[in-house]
Amino acid sequence: MMVTHLMLQYRVVAAHEEHEKAYQSQDAIFVARKRNVNAKKVKPMRWVKNVGLGIKPPDAAIEGTYVDKKCPFTGNVSIRGKILKGLVISTKMKRTVVVRRDYLHYIKKYRRFEKRHKNIHAHCSPCFGVKEGDIVTIGQCRPLAKTVKFNVVAHEAQRAKTGKKTFRMF
């Protein structure tokens, strides 16, 4: 009885450190490498790539410990196609944000513009601490889910607190 109680306590502690059900490791890294006995401090192996287009990988992606196969910096996703900017209006999904893009549509008959918007679902890597109201740059990639076809590649901190549905162009 006592042994099982200790084992349960150990499992609870391990569950708090590891958030996923399965063991997480990057595909490009060989986990069971040989270690040098004389080495003082071994730097953990981490695979990071440059997505191009003048976008630098954030420090959290280079020095972090997270594993995300849909991350454009540490996963198997390439950014190609459109690069868009928008306002984050929801972060309720796990690793996915909703980005609002406002634009003007011209009506020929009345020779005026009308305001329109689109909501775009984008995968947000754990290296970005995105909150509602932040401005993000998203890049198009292959479909990651039914509605997710974009990936967050840059993040600007929140400026002024405005409403979700206020019209803002970038």
Furnish the topology, listing elements before pairings.
Layout: H1 2-17, H2 59-63, E1 83-93, E2 96-107, E3 112-123, E4 135-140, E5 148-156
Parallel strand pairs: 3-5
Antiparallel strand pairs: 1-2, 1-4, 2-3, 4-5
Walk me through what this model shows.
There is one protein chain. This protein is an alpha+beta fold and 170 residues long. Helix content is 12%, strand content 29%. The chain contains 2 helices and 5 strands, in the order H-H-E-E-E-E-E. The protein is elongated.
Keywords:
170 residues, elongated, alpha+beta, 29% strand, 2 helices
Order of helices and strands: HHEEEEE
What is the approximate shape?
A: elongated
Rg (C-alpha, Å): 21 Å
- DSSP E strands, number: 5
- Overall residue-averaged pLDDT value: 81
- Biggest sheet strand order reads 1-2-3-5-4
Fraction of residues in β-strands: 25-35%
* Biggest pleated-sheet summary: 5 strands, mixed, barrel
Quick rundown:
This protein has 170 residues and is an alpha+beta fold. Helix content is 12%, strand content 29%. A 5-stranded mixed β-barrel has the order 1-2-3-5-4.
